[in-house]
Amino acid sequence: MPRLPTFARLGLLSIVTLVFIIPLQPYSGDASSHRDAPLITEDPVADNTDVYAFVSTQPGRQDYVSVIANYIPLQEPGDGPNYYRFSDNVLYEINIDVDGDARPDLKYHFTFDTKILNGNTFLYNLGKIGLPPIPADPASQYANLNVLQSYRVTEWINHAPRTLLERARVAPIHVGPKSTGTPAEYDLLANAAIHTIGAAPRELRVFAGPRDDGFYVDLMGAFDLINPRNPGADQVSGFNVHSLAVEIPKSRLMDAGDKDGRIGVWATANRRKVEILREDGRQPDHTGNWVQVSRLANPLVNEVLIPLKAKDLYNATEPGDDERNIRNFIVNPGTSQGPAALIPILNGLTGCTPTTNRTDLELALLTGIPGGVIPGFVGNRETQKEKVAVADLIRLNYNIPPATTPNNLGLLGADVAGFPNGRRVGDDVLDIDLKAAGGAILHVLGAISCPASLTLSDFVNANDVPYLSTFPYLGRPHQGYAHLHDHS
Fold it and tell me: Of 27-41, 214-228, 457-471, which has the strongest mean pLDDT?
């Protein structure tokens, strides 16, 4: 099979326009990486499930980039009285690299604090939850809420920290009609957890709280030895996640050193090195340095492309370690993992999926795509360094404006504003990843003939909750009192 870095010698530029004749698909979709490594399954409050990075699509906000990191997978909405929440003992991080060295030049740290007002009850709230008495004050808490959670946001620009918010309220759990009212009333409560820092045009907006888990997929079809069924069953419907969202002015990215409008994004979770358990029922003590326990950028990389023996290593290491630790699993899965890896299994389905020399996946997932490879796409590979780091980052060229008619297949659907150029909440990255892993990029480039790769899908084509058209974009969380799961 030809190797993709020699695009000009392959003559692919003359035929790459085939990308643009793939039919448009309805704009819906999502995917993520739940429970992606053995160790993190024992620590769900630190488990990062999704990362998104895209130019804000809310009208009038195109000079901003939205980054969202989700944690705590597969939350059953009715699991009270101690509902899911961010951990007070985890440091949650959103990281942005602006110059291609896979090191953060801009970071947002989130740390949380939980207080119980009345310990003589089992209830999360002591009446119908109401808006804060002083909505403009981020520290003003919701009326009748008994379990209060707040957070601090610290921004790091080139290793210099600055506290942006302290004691900021977290959006409440969507308990039920008696506690949180109608859907419209809950939306007002959630909107009160959107905090604005600074003044236009350089203000940031942040949000922390529960959201619908927008990941929809036939999980058992995927994990039953890649056994798709049509129609698929959305086995993540009815579940929630906890989201951290930051809307960043592009000028702030430039303050961090960006000169070309191309960035790399990932998220992490960290715990103190030592936990001391108590025998009296009180909270454990946590001491020592922060240790990274979870990491995520491109969806499904750790979940299905990296083998079991390396998953925990990925979560514990930095993106700069990826060339040594995971590149061979992605580029040469047939020789580095054997027949039970995803790509060899897909070859069994398509009969034409290459299992070695997958430099197409290296471009899409580990280095970014250079300009000039795909007509109409100026690329998302960093230009500030001659040799960019080989690292799992969501790479976004934020010079590209939002699509007027988004296509959920992103670049495979001729939409240069979509995955793998960043990742929007609606990008159907599960289908994109399946098709790409099966050889769809190579097929449309003319490097191989594998039309079966274009048909790969989990046959789940819609989320159970609509996305928002405004920040923080993910849909309303499911109510604990009444919700549905599709487990057919």
Answer: 457-471
Q: Is residue 2 part of a domain?
A: no
Contact 213, 49 (CB under 8 A): yes
The verdict on residue 302 lying in a domain is yes
Which whole number is the average pLDDT over 279-294?
Answer: 91
| Domain ranges, residue 36 | 7-455
Tokens of 351: 């009969």
The mean pLDDT value for 204-228 works out to 85
pLDDT score of 9: 32
* Residue 397 within a domain: yes
Q: Please provide residue 60's backbone torsions phi and psi, each rounded to the nearest 5 degrees.
A: 80, 5
Residues 94, 248: Cα–Cα separation, whole Å: 12
Decide which of 195 and 386 is more confident. Answer: 195
Contacts of residues 335-340 at CB distance under 8 Å and 24 or more positions apart, as own/partner, are 337/307
The answer to whether residues 261 and 99 touch, using CB atoms and an 8 Å cutoff, is no
Total number of domains in the chain? 1
**Is 470 a member of any domain?**
no
Count CB neighbours of 383 within 10 A. 17
Structure tokens belonging to residue 108: 């947002």
Backbone angles phi, psi at 307, to 5 degrees: -75, 165
**Residue partners of 72: CB distance under 8 A and separation at least 6:** 44, 45, 47, 49, 84, 86, 241, 242
150 phi/psi in degrees, rounded to 5: -135, 170
**How far is the CA of 481 from the CAs of 187, 231, 465, 476, in angstroms?**
16, 29, 16, 14
Query: pLDDT tens, 411-428?
Result: 999 999 999 999 999 999
> Any idea what the Cα angle at residue 353 is, between residues 367 and 452, rounded to 5°?
115
